[in-house]
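Re: that backbone. Tokens:
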């Protein structure tokens, strides 16, 4: 039987990513993602602070574009690591290894407000914003349509 290890999270970046390089020169970015979860019956929400690791080009993109408070989506896998502390205690760490990331917005960038470019155009002519993430173009509101309209 096959197995599946996939994690999809939407949350806010807790602090800017910590960027470093391995001895072989591979980029590694680490950050924590605050993900809300339903709390007690009194309606109070809680948050989980989940460690995320990104490698190579995705790590560079995270380092360049992520800041505290940014709302992002992360797609990846759960990984465990075993290590020993300086005083000899054995520990296990859990983290999400990101394979893809999409910036959704942040509190400070005026979510839901039109950009200056969109304010100058009528709504019927506005094109969705795209962003390069992990080598792929992502449209803010789904795939882009050809300029000539529907192909049928």
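Recovered sequence:
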């Amino acid at each position: 039987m096959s197995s599946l290890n996939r994690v999809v999270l939407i949350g806010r970046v807790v602090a800017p990513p910590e960027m470093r390089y391995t001895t072989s020169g591979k980029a590694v970015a680490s950050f924590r993602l605050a993900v809300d979860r339903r709390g007690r019956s009194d309606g109070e929400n809680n948050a989980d602070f989940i460690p995320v690791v990104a490698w190579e080009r995705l790590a560079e993109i995270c380092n360049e574009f992520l800041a505290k408070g940014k709302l992002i989506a992360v797609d990846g896998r759960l990984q465990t690591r075993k290590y020993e502390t300086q005083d000899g205690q054995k520990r296990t760490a859990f983290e999400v290894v990101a394979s893809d990331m999409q910036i959704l917005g942040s509190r400070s960038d005026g979510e839901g407000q039109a950009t200056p470019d969109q304010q100058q155009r009528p709504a019927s002519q506005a094109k969705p914003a795209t962003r390069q993430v992990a080598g792929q173009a992502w449209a803010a509101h789904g795939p882009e349509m050809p300029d000539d309209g529907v192909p049928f």
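The radius of gyration is 19 Å. Helices lie at 56-65, 116-120.
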